[in-house]
Design goal:
Arc Repressor Mutant, subunit A; elongated; Sig_transdc_resp-reg_receiver; 5-stranded antiparallel beta sheet; two-component regulatory system
Length: 239
């Protein structure tokens, strides 16, 4: 008899020869599963609720898995494991930027994937505290986390990726404090530092460019050698 309390895993992959055997394998190991051949079908399933974790293939026809991942992390607390045939570090970092919790390359071992699923479910609580939704000012910028933008004093809107938006929110939450890379990854979404060893550094570099803080040494997001990063300056809530 199927355990109605077992974690429900959504598998979104256009390749039936991957999607269906994986669903059967997960079911044999105590998970409930639902499958989708594209992002549109996945969105329908996700809208019904109850999904504990989504496994999403990056290369799908129509909307990409990266776009679906970004939507999911903006609108829900469902963790995401991305599947991809690309194994380069830059591809893993792109996955983080779009909000993924882990990244698995094809071909993969189903047993290893189960271990990754269980690890993500342990790391990401079922109910995470909601991130701040109010706007906050630092320097000449106002951060709007709901819209994932920065607005400068000239009225220019600067779009942020999911990773940049979450990372900036973590810096604003801990203004004036040195925050380690590992802790920043946890604050962004409970990720394992081993999965994205250089992701924070790359995201910080992009944030610095967007706020004009890319001169050396940086003045706003300061590198604390051996420690991590620190946001310098006052942070104010904007009504």
């Amino acid at each position: 008899m199927r355990d109605v309390h077992a974690p429900l895993i959504l598998i979104a992959d256009d390749a039936r020869d991957i999607r269906d055997p994986l669903a059967s394998f997960l079911a044999r190991h105590g998970f409930r599963t639902r499958t989708a051949a594209n992002a549109a079908d996945a969105r329908t399933i996700l809208a019904e609720g109850g999904v504990h974790l989504a496994i999403i293939d990056i290369m799908m026809p129509g909307e990409s898995g990266l776009s679906l991942c970004a939507h999911l992390t903006r609108t829900s607390r469902v963790p995401v494991i991305l599947l991809s045939a690309c194994a380069e570090e830059t591809d893993r970092i792109r996955g983080l930027d779009h909000g993924a919790d882990d990244y698995v390359t094809k071909p993969f071992s189903p047993r290893e994937l189960i271990a990754r699923i269980r690890a993500v479910l342990r790391r990401v609580p079922a109910e995470l505290p909601s991130p701040p939704t109010g706007r906050r000012r630092f320097g000449r910028f106002v951060h709007d986390p709901t819209r994932a933008i920065l607005c400068d004093d000239a009225g220019r809107d600067i779009e942020l990726t999911t990773g940049e938006n979450r990372l900036l929110g973590a810096f604003l939450d801990h203004a004036g404090q040195t925050v380690s890379r590992a802790r920043l990854l946890e604050l962004m979404r409970g990720r394992s530092p081993r999965a994205y060893d250089r992701a924070v550094d790359n995201t910080v570099s992009r944030l610095r460019r967007k706020i004009g803080d890319d001169a050396k040494p940086a003045q706003v997001i300061v590198t604390e050698w051996g420690g991590g990063y620190r946001l310098v300056g006052a942070v104010e809530t904007v009504e």
